[in-house]
Amino acid sequence: MAELRIQGLGKSFGNGVPVVGGIDLTVHSGEFMVLVGPSGCGKSTTLRMVAGLEDPNEGQIFIDGVDVTDRAPAERGVAMVFQSYALYPHMTVAANMGFGLRMAGLKPDDVEARVHRAARSLQLEPLLQRRPRELSGGQRQRVAIGRAIVREPKVFLFDEPLSNLDASLRTQMRGELAELHQRLGATIVYVTHDQVEAMTLGQRIAIFNAGRIEQVGAPLALYERPANLFVAGFLGSPRMNFLPAALAEGLAGSLPSGTVTVGIRPEQLRWVIAEDTSGLPVRLDRIEHLGDVALLHCQVLGGGEPVIVKSALGPTGLPPLQHTLWLQADRGRVLAFDSAGGLLAR
Ligand SMILES: Nc1ncnc2c1ncn2[C@@H]1O[C@H](COP(=O)(O)OP(=O)(O)OP(=O)(O)O)[C@@H](O)[C@H]1O
Ligand SMILES: [Mg+2]
């Protein structure tokens, strides 16, 4: 394991428009760092530059303090796992996992020992003599991870490794990856656009937007104290409600003057049917039942702004559609953002 430090890293392709705009990021030794952000924001390009598969236009990459920016991929001590795991169809699992090591000239005994060790940690031992077509999607993905583990890299790079799997397999593999990280103590940089994956796997998360990093921090810290509107709206499903300050006056308490946007997460809102003039009156338009909770899609009376409330089902059930509800919020947790989108201290 090793520390990865990215300094002023930038990349633009042919047309000169930067797709990664000078990013700085340090991944501590043994840390599980997740890069997350919307499609096209530059996550894969960043990872590919760290792997050496793409040349940066500016900036440097250090692994354990050594500048590897100009080194060939094989000489950086990194191993990358892709979304399309591209196993050799005619080779067994064992041969697939050992292929890179044999190419690098390792002795057959050493290759076998490493393959068996990795297979044990990934529960692939019973499958070592199978071919990829005889495996499930999750098993194939484990082989691809095994192929990275046997190389004993300083840094693991994962680019959306679970997005080809169905939901339940993804959940299972998520658990296995977290466990693997604990066991290996490896430094991992993991790219995803799935915020649940980011929140559950990352010790820290870097939120990307349009080629830049908006904020880096522990998952819950980002969820509770997002630095700006982008991060606030990106993490959380359904996303945070945003209201003009004047509307949210009663919910948010005293707010600074100027154009302020108030942010309230759906789970921080409570509703009552009886008129409560200190609350925010809304009309209930639609109910989505998720089983354990329901999402109440509402509109602010008069203004028409959409508001979503995440509601327990409750012993008395939910109100009928088109009813007026009065909303209250946990004032301590309501956030406010200035006109530039930055979080206001309170
Ligand atoms: N080889 C290339 N030539 C030109 N443009 C490219 C090239 N590779 C990527 N891009 C552009 O760079 C931007 C960032 O791409 P990148 O693959 O890093 O995004 P991403 O964050 O990984 O997105 P996704 O979540 O969809 O995988 C995109 O606008 C993409 O079209
Ligand atoms: Mg990508």
Question: How would the blueprint of this fold be written?
Answer:
Layout: E1 4-12, E2 18-27, E3 32-36, H1 43-51, E4 58-63, E5 66-67, E6 78-81, H2 93-103, H3 108-121, H4 137-149, E7 155-159, H5 167-184, E8 187-192, H6 195-201, E9 204-209, E10 212-217, H7 219-224, H8 229-234, E11 241-244, H9 249-252, E12 261-264, E13 269-272, E14 280-289, E15 293-300, E16 306-312, E17 324-329, E18 335-337
Parallel strand pairs: 3-8, 3-9, 6-7, 7-8
Antiparallel strand pairs: 1-2, 1-4, 4-5, 9-10, 11-12, 12-18, 13-17, 14-15, 14-17, 15-16
Bound molecules: adenosine-5'-triphosphate and magnesium ion.
Fold and architecture overview:
This protein has 346 residues and is an alpha+beta fold. It folds into 2 domains: 4-228, P-loop containing nucleotide triphosphate hydrolases (Rossmann fold, 3-Layer(aba) Sandwich); 238-337, Nucleic acid-binding proteins (OB fold (Dihydrolipoamide Acetyltransferase, E2P), Beta Barrel). It is built from 9 helices and 18 strands. The chain has helices spanning 43-51, 93-103, 108-121, 137-149, 167-184, 195-201, 219-224, 229-234, 249-252, and strands at residues 4-12, 18-27, 32-36, 58-63, 66-67, 78-81, 155-159, 187-192, 204-209, 212-217, 241-244, 261-264, 269-272, 280-289, 293-300, 306-312, 324-329, 335-337. It has a 6-stranded mixed β-sheet with strand order 6-7-8-3-9-10, with helices on both faces. Strands 13-17-14-15-16 form a 5-stranded antiparallel β-sheet. Helix 2 (93-103) crosses helix 3 (108-121) and helix 2 runs parallel beside helix 4. The radius of gyration is 24 Å and the shape is elongated. The protein starts with a strand and ends in a 9-residue tail after the last strand. The model has no long low-confidence stretch (mean pLDDT 92). The structure holds adenosine-5'-triphosphate (ATP) and magnesium ion (MG).
